Amino acid sequence: MTDYLVDNSVWARLATGDVGITARLRRIERAPADLFVTCPPQVLEFCHSARTPEEHLQYRGRISLGFPLERAPEESLVLDIQLDIQTALWSSGLVRSAGAVDILIAGYAIVNDATVLTADHDFDHIASVTDLQHEYIAPSA
Predict the structure, then answer these.
(1) pLDDT digit string (tens) for 5-44?
(2) Most buried of 4, 7, 31, 56, CB within 10 angstroms?
(3) Which structural domain range is residue 53 located in?
(4) Helix (H, G, I), strand (E, B), or coil: what is residue 131?
(5) Which CATH number do you get for residue 69?
(6) 92-124, pLDDT tens digit by residue?
(7) 105 near 69, Cβ under 8 Å?
(8) CA-CA distance, 115 to 65, in Å (whole number)?
(9) Do residues 122 and 86 lie in contact, with contact meaning Cβ atoms separated by under 8 Å?
């Protein structure tokens, strides 16, 4: 069983009709043991993409179809996890290769043993310095 935490880069490409992204999401959807999961920073990032109040409500409804992850990083450790990942990125020369929201999403994925599904390389960088599980889907040409 795999829990997939879907990055906004995937949702954005899905909205453009990307066939590769659509096919991968359909395979996950049909797999009886796989789940789409959410976490607060991922929901905020997804809903932030809305351009109107109506679209925001539509996005909230859509994202609520995923199952919330069971565990949040302990509140006292959230900043430590983010800073540890950020420090590891800096130490390996990847300076600003991933933003704060992606680092926080990675923290949620790590503590829940979830796989981040992404269509950009930010999570590749995070995975290179942590034990983050992720899957990159190349956008269709």
Answers:
(1) 999 999 889 888 999 999 999 999 999 999 999 888 888 8
(2) 7
(3) 3-136
(4) coil
(5) 3.40.50.1010
(6) 777 766 778 888 899 889 888 999 999 989 899
(7) no
(8) 17
(9) no
